[in-house]
Design goal:
Elements (H helix, E strand, L loop, with lengths): L1 H61 L8 H7 L3 H21 L7 H36 L3 H8 L11 H17 L1
Length: 184
C-alpha cells in the first residue's frame, strides 16, 4: 500500500514540476516577444520623432507663423514610451490635418519624400504596436489565470500596458472640419 502512495506522490510531483516548467516557458516566450516589440517600438518612435521634427521645421520655415510646436521639447519631456507615442501621435495628427486642410500647400520633392516615409513608418509602427499589444494581452491573461497567476506573482511580474491607436481621433478632426465648412 505504501509503495502505491509513494508512486502517486512521485507522479504528482513530476506533473507539478512539468506544469511549472511549462508555465515558465510560456512566460519566457511571451516576454521575449514583448521585449522585441518594445525595442522595435523604441526604434520606430525615434525615427518618427526625427522625421516629424524635420517635416514640421520645414513647414514652419515656409510659413510666416510657427504652425507646429517643437518635437524636441516632446522628446525631452518624455521618459515613458507610451506617453511619447501618444504625444508624437498628436503631432502626427496635426500634420495630417494641416496637409488635408491646406490643399494649396505643395511640398517640395524632398519634403514630400519625408512625408511619404513618415506614412510608411506609421504603418510599421502600428503593426509593431499590434504585435506588442497581442503579446502583452497574452501575458496579462497568464497573470489572470490559475496556476500561472501564482508563478507570475512569485516572479514579481506586473501587468503590461497596451498602446492605443489614434485613427479614431483623425476621423473626429475630419468630422469637425467638415462641420465648420458646412456652417460657413
Amino acid at each position: 500500500m505504501i509503495p502505491y502512495i509513494v508512486l502517486v506522490v512521485v507522479i504528482l510531483l513530476i506533473l507539478l514540476i512539468s506544469k511549472y516548467r511549462s508555465i515558465l516557458r510560456d512566460y519566457n516566450s511571451v516576454l521575449t516577444r514583448i521585449h522585441h516589440g518594445e525595442n522595435e517600438i523604441d526604434e520606430l518612435l525615434n525615427k518618427k520623432a526625427d522625421l516629424l521634427d524635420s517635416i514640421c521645421e520645414s513647414i514652419n520655415n515656409i510659413n510666416d507663423n510657427r504652425v507646429f510646436s517643437s518635437v524636441k521639447k516632446v522628446l525631452k519631456n518624455n521618459i515613458d514610451t507610451l506617453k511619447l507615442d501618444k504625444d508624437l501621435a498628436e503631432i502626427y495628427l496635426e500634420l495630417k490635418e494641416y496637409l488635408l486642410v491646406n490643399k494649396s500647400f505643395v511640398p517640395e520633392e524632398e519634403l514630400q519624400n519625408k512625408i511619404n516615409e513618415l506614412s510608411e513608418l506609421e504603418l510599421d509602427l502600428e503593426a509593431t504596436k499590434t504585435f506588442y499589444n497581442d503579446n502583452s494581452t497574452i501575458f496579462n491573461e497568464l497573470l489572470d489565470s490559475f496556476p500561472s497567476k501564482s508563478v507570475g506573482k512569485r516572479k514579481g511580474y506586473d501587468y503590461k500596458n497596451l498602446y492605443t491607436f489614434k485613427e479614431e481621433e483623425l476621423f473626429e478632426i475630419l468630422k469637425k472640419d467638415n462641420k465648420k465648412k458646412k456652417e460657413a
